[in-house]
Prior knowledge:
Elements: H1 2-7, H2 9-12, E1 15-26, E2 32-42, H3 49-54, E3 66-80, E4 84-97
Antiparallel strand pairs: 1-2, 2-3, 3-4
Amino acid sequence: MRRFLEGYRALTIGTRRQALNHVIDGNEDGPISAVLWMQIVRVAEPNDAVGVKAGALTENHVGFPGILISSLVTARFRNIAGIGWCYLEYQVDGVVANNALRRED
């Protein structure tokens, strides 16, 4: 997962991740399943990201914030004795990207 996220670092500078509408279910065999909507919201151009993060309020007139990516996420976890909660599966489906907001600087 770390390699995957590092590959998209340039894409995600100036964004915020929002996990929405969690539905959590227990399973008879022990794991917990979570289904949620993930949205990546572009709040700034990559070069402006540090300034936006530091400010209390940033007024933007070029269309930010805007939904960059929306997807459905399904995850399964198991509580392992001595370790804690661990991912068994993490699946991302139904990805929709707004290429008008995509930046790869």
